[in-house]
């Protein structure tokens, strides 16, 4: 039996998952890859840290060079996270002809072109299935299975933390703050939750997915991003009454040759499969011109699901090592896509505002909308507090630019206390 | 630009899809595979047939040898169907060092070992993603993405025709016969619907999925099979009242080292994602010891979705042609799995019978169940017709053997007019 040595960079959540899977499924992995997989060195920051995993201490090191200079190590698995030193370590490993597997969405989203160019130049493989959707085979899906398609849309719930929070707010009618606190207690959210709740994490992931789906490097700066911190229980309640559920979606669409790229809270029809993806589950809907609509659903994070993707990538490398496989899509922008301006997005909108409770206010606001070509599907007036009332408008399908112009004008009115929230509605349907 | 010639065997539904995708997505395919894909010869039965596809007549042939002996053809795509002559054509093609792609579940399920052994012996690839779940990447999922997992369960809706019929019966409360008639009119069911409604088609597919999931050749004779012809609107209505939906499921589970393999109508909790897979959509739920639960959902048939899988396989071959990829799982039984006897299956059961409406009948039946260790969760008595009543029992979790023994005894009772239906209930939950 051939043997392969792996250098593991990082022994946190994902590193632990990788270690445990390689131990637990040793026999299957041998049979399926033809190799005995041996994690021979592990890079950590602190050797003496207490760890919830049974790893022989002598294989831990704090010196990356011990792994880099070890010629018996053929594959480096990077599960440290962040840009530095991770990207540097990956590049140096590839220059030493070591294949690389990573689960690092930030590195791939921001340095993907450099990393993948290096891999081709050095004749080694770089796989990153774990970087989006945990154990859901979405990267491979786009690179391999759907290769016969022109992809038209990729729409997904690709952040487990915010989905957990929104699910909890919906089910238990608690505030964002309460739901976040529980997510932190349960280990679903980090102490500093910014990356998740402000939607940076799903922005990186959408960047990767759209680069693969549309055969071109997408820069994160192209992506319109809004987090979920402004979602109130009352918005969720209105959504429910209107037949919707609020989800944080990553949306990438090819609209008339322009790419629409956005991550934001979205109202989704309650009977759509995405509406029923709860807690820390992820799901990605892909529309291709041959396959039609396809949905992949599963655990989007966690040490074992992410480890499943990472170890799957290791096996792919072993199977292809005599003839490295590259997927060029991400490597360089051939003809850069035209990016659709956010003002050109078209959908329905939910707009909630607090206004003074006096005659003529509704008329004034409606006339502002009208002048900006925004027409209304419905208006709900509810909840009186002192001299104010809450107004909710649902628009017909409208250009975002017209909504923004209207909101600028509406905000100037003395009778409008506050525009509380504007949420896009996507009337997704399965064909 | 390199060019590859393809010989297409069959120009029916799937053949048409393959042709159209290769035409329509030519540019993407070039960019992604590095090849210009050229379908240079097509085998059909009748050259003069009117076809809904714009193919130059001069490339059609009725003589397989024209393709076999053409050394410029590197890949043969078999979309004729059935065992003969398809299997023979595939084997002869491989012996001529041509790679093969097929969507033929019957051929893979029954002759998979021979076909895959030949592929390895001849050093050519044989891919068959289109054979299960149309455009859903389930074969590749098991072969590649989930390779790091011990698979515990594969449960799926893998026949579009019966799912269409059951969805229609559920939504419109029509009979099986009416729903079948409409499915035939719409082209979802064939003139002779036996293969679908008697569940042969999903049996072949489950055979393939379980062979891949459990690393061993599963023989179709191991699979317990029941079709949907006996499902009545009243069963669907009872299911609804009890919070279930009836679906035809293929189920493969590893239970204590034994394989449980069955295809039959099943009651699924109404809030489970599988319950909401309607019409001709397919979905497969996979449970792995690393990835947890994963669901793949999409169009399970149709010319373009199936063509998407077939053309995806062509690209995989082009990418790997210098170093052929084999997945050995299916090739030979290493240690044959122990197959779990159907009498050892454990679940809840729905039992509907017509009995004489007289005192003591219920007691008599309950005592038979009791003697056979079947305990009841609930009993519903409804619908009086002349001197008969309809009785519905829902059992606790029970051994199938005990159910069968009870039913044998119950049938002998003079007071029991007929045991109308016995349907297994799977209380699937997402973890
Ligand atoms: N967690 C998930 O569910 C998940 C899912 C998908 C993708 N990912 C990605 O996977 C990667 C790892 O995530 P994680 O959750 O496993 O992170 P983590 O729990 O924070 O673990 C990071 C590991 O890297 C080590 N490390 C950090 N900085 C280092 C340095 N400068 N030199 C050497 N070692 C260093 C740490 O060492 P010590 O142990 O000594 O502190 C620790 O073992 C990230 O890119 C993340 O985005 C995570
Ligand atoms: N239809 C689907 O949605 C679907 C989905 C997944 C998998 N599949 C599988 O794909 C395969 C093809 O299905 P299909 O629906 O495309 O079948 P189909 O519409 O019946 O087409 C069969 C084709 O094969 C040709 N053919 C039949 N017998 C032949 C023979 N002895 N010699 C030469 N040519 C012959 C026919 O020629 P003529 O045109 O001259 O009659 C026809 O073009 C089957 O294995 C099926 O199980 C189908």
UniProtKB/TrEMBL annotation, chains A, B:
<dbReference type="InterPro" id="IPR016204">
    <property type="entry name" value="HDH"/>
</dbReference>
<feature type="domain" description="ACT">
    <location>
        <begin position="350"/>
        <end position="424"/>
    </location>
</feature>
<keyword id="KW-0028">Amino-acid biosynthesis</keyword>
<dbReference type="Pfam" id="PF01842">
    <property type="entry name" value="ACT"/>
</dbReference>
<dbReference type="InterPro" id="IPR002912">
    <property type="entry name" value="ACT_dom"/>
</dbReference>
<protein>
    <recommendedName>
        <fullName>Homoserine dehydrogenase</fullName>
    </recommendedName>
</protein>
<dbReference type="Pfam" id="PF03447">
    <property type="entry name" value="NAD_binding_3"/>
</dbReference>
<dbReference type="Pfam" id="PF00742">
    <property type="entry name" value="Homoserine_dh"/>
</dbReference>
<dbReference type="InterPro" id="IPR001342">
    <property type="entry name" value="HDH_cat"/>
</dbReference>
<dbReference type="InterPro" id="IPR005106">
    <property type="entry name" value="Asp/hSer_DH_NAD-bd"/>
</dbReference>
<comment type="pathway">
    <text>Amino-acid biosynthesis.</text>
</comment>
<keyword id="KW-0486">Methionine biosynthesis</keyword>
<keyword id="KW-0560">Oxidoreductase</keyword>
<keyword id="KW-0791">Threonine biosynthesis</keyword>
């Amino acid at each position: 039996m051939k043997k392969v040595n792996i250098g593991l960079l990082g022994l946190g959540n994902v590193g632990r998952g990788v270690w445990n899977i390689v131990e637990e499924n040793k026999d299957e992995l041998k049979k399926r890859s033809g190799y005995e997989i041996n994690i021979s060195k592990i890079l950590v920051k602190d050797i003496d840290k207490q760890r919830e995993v049974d790893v022989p201490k002598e294989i831990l090191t704090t010196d990356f060079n011990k792994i880099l200079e070890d010629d018996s190590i053929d594959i480096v698995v990077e599960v440290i996270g962040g840009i530095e030193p991770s990207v540097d370590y990956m590049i140096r490993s590839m220059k030493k002809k070591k294949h690389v597997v990573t689960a690092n969405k930030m590195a791939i989203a921001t340095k993907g072109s450099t990393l993948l160019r290096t891999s081709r130049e050095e004749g080694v493989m770089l796989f990153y299935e774990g970087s989006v959707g945990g154990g859901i085979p979405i990267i491979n899906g786009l690179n391999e299975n759907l290769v016969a398609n022109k992809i038209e849309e990729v729409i997904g719930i690709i952040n487990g933390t915010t989905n957990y929070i929104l699910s909890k707010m919906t089910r238990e009618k608690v505030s964002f703050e309460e739901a976040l606190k529980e997510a932190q207690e349960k280990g679903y959210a980090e102490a500093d939750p910014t990356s998740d709740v402000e939607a940076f994490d799903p922005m990186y992931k959408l960047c990767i997915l759209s680069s693969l789906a549309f055969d071109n490097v997408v820069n994160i700066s192209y992506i319109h991003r809004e987090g979920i911190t402004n979602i109130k229980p009352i918005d969720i309640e209105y959504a429910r009454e209107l037949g919707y559920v609020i989800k944080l979606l990553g949306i990438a669409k090819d609209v008339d040759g322009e790419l629409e790229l956005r991550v934001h809270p979205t109202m989704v029809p309650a009977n759509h499969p995405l509406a029923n993806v709860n807690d820390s589950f992820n799901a990605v809907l892909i529309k291709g011109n041959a396959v039609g609509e396809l949905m992949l659903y599963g655990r989007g994070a966690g040490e074992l699901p992410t480890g499943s993707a990472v170890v799957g990538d290791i096996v792919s490398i072993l199977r292809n090592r005599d003839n490295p496989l590259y997927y060029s899509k991400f490597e360089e922008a051939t003809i850069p896509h035209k990016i659709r301006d956010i003002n050109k997005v078209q959908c329905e909108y939910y707009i909630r505002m607090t206004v003074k409770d006096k005659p003529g206010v509704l008329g004034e606001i409606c006339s502002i909308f009208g002048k900006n070509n925004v027409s209304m599907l419905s208006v709900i007036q509810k909840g009186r507090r002192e001299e104010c009332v809450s107004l909710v408008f649902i628009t017909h399908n409208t250009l975002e630019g017209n909504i923004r112009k209207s909101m600028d004008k509406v905000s100037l009115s003395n009778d409008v206390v506050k525009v509380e929230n504007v949420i896009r509605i996507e009337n997704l349907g399965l064909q």
